[in-house]
Amino acid sequence: MDLGIAGRKAMVCGASRGLGRGCAQALAAEGAEVWVAARTPETLERAVAEIRAAGGQATAVLADVTSEQGRAKLLEACPAPDILVNNAGGPPPGNFRDWTREDWIKAIDANMLSAIELIRLTIDGMSERRFGRIVNITSYMVKSPLGVLGLSNGARSGLTGFVGGLAREVAGEGVTVNNLLPGQFDTDRLRSNHEKMAAGSGSDLEQVRKSARGAIPAGRFGQPDEFGAACAFLCSEWASYITGQNILLDGGQYPGML
Q1: Strands 132-137 and 175-182
Q2: In this structure, how many other beta carbons lie within 10 angstroms of the beta carbon of residue 124?
Q3: Which residues contact 85 (CB under 8 A, 6 or more apart)?
Q4: pLDDT higher than threshold 80 for residue 258
Q5: Residue 135: other Cβ atoms inside 10 A
């Protein structure tokens, strides 16, 4: 299927590895010109080089999009994106009794306010051009919260509520806004969480991972490339009637209907 986004300009945050990289690769494979934003020079340059080697168009932007300076640098490199994929690493797990106000502000700034600010800075241009796709990578924990991930749950739920209202305001202007809610994907972030869980419980890491896989009806962790494919479809011409949605990609782990 031709997704109809060849030549579109795509801004992908946190895209040097993991789910963000999967999205950048998928968009580039569909012919979009991709600006890859990340904080780590080594992984950023590697990701861009591999996208180019596969025939895609990609530009590296070394920037922390959770900061005002980083967002300004990204928008200077790509001032008029047709596609925006918001993505930022989540805060660490822990016990809410140990979290300070500073911890909460940092989580909200990184996983809610930075995405809203990038949307604010790009959405009017999308509306004027009558085409825009905004995809926010949040988490399936928005629907099925886990206590130890409370910082992430709170911040991402706030972004979810904001998107619910915004999507309906711009739906008639050719702009869609959706959230992708990943479950357990085989990324560095997941492994790091499993390592912390193993250390905290005194368990073996592989046993923790085996138990995690056992809780997923699909019987496996997701792969970043299949996540990227879902993102690319949401950014396509064919997804123009999908907006304001929270789309789970979790191998069936969430037990509810809504």
Answers
A1: parallel
A2: 14
A3: 10, 11, 12, 13, 15, 20, 23, 24, 27, 134, 135, 136, 137, 231, 235
A4: no
A5: 26
Cα–Cα distance for residue pair 254/258, rounded to 1 Å:
10
The maximal CA–CA distance of the chain, rounded, in angstroms, is 56
Please state whether the predicted TM-score (pTM) of the whole model is above 0.90.
yes
> Could you give the CA distance from residue 257 to residue 248 in angstroms, rounded to a whole number?
11
Residue 129 tokens, joined = 């051009």
Q: How far apart are CA 31 and CA 8, in angstroms?
A: 8
Mean pLDDT on 180-203: 87
CA–CA gap between residue 76 and residue 70 (Å, rounded): 10
Residue 198 has pLDDT above 90, yes or no: no
List phi, psi (to 5°) of 249. -130, 90
Mean pLDDT of 108-132: 97
The tokens describing 6, both together, are 């060849």
Residue partners of 120: CB distance under 8 A and separation at least 6: none
**Span of 79-93, 146-160, 165-179, 190-204 with lowest mean pLDDT:** 190-204
| Alpha-carbon gap, residue 229 to 30, rounded angstroms | 10
CB environment 94-104: b (16+ within 10 A), e (fewer): beeeebeeebb
